[in-house]
Design a protein that fits this description.
The chain is of the alpha+beta class. The chain has three helices and seven strands. Helices cover 33% and strands 23% of the residues. The protein has a seven-stranded antiparallel beta sheet with strand order 1-2-3-4-5-6-7.
Length: 137
Amino acid sequence: MKQIHARKIKDRITMLRPKLPIKNMYWEFHKNDDDYWPSVPHGHSLDGNYKLEIWSGNIYNLHTGKLEYKAKQKEMNKLQQYEDFQDFVSICREEYAKRNPSITIPELKIKRRRSSHRVEHKKVQEKYLFKISANRI
C-alpha cells in the first residue's frame, strides 16, 4: 500500500504531498490556498520556486509568473491517478467556491483511460489494412 503524505487536522486533510516526482521536483498541494492561479488547486514545489498547474502540467516560476517547464504527460497521468488525489481536488474546488463565490473557476479536465475506444480503433484499423492489401492483389 502506498503511503500518502498528508497533514490532517481533526480527520480533515489540509495538505497533500504525493511521493511522486514531476520534472524531478516534489510537490505540495494545499487545501485552503486562496490563490487561484494557475489552477485550483495547484502544486507548490518543495523548494518554493515553482507552481504546477495540475491539468496541463505547466510549471511556472513563482517569482516571475513565466512558464518555465512542461511536465511529461506520463507524469501528469500518474499524479491524476494517485491514491485519493481526485477526491482531494474535488474537495479543494468545492471549498474554494464557497470561500470565493465571486470567482468562477473553470470546469475540471479529467483525463480518463479510453481502453475500450482504443480496442475499437484497432479493429477498424485492422479492417482498413485488410481492405488495402486485398485491393493490391
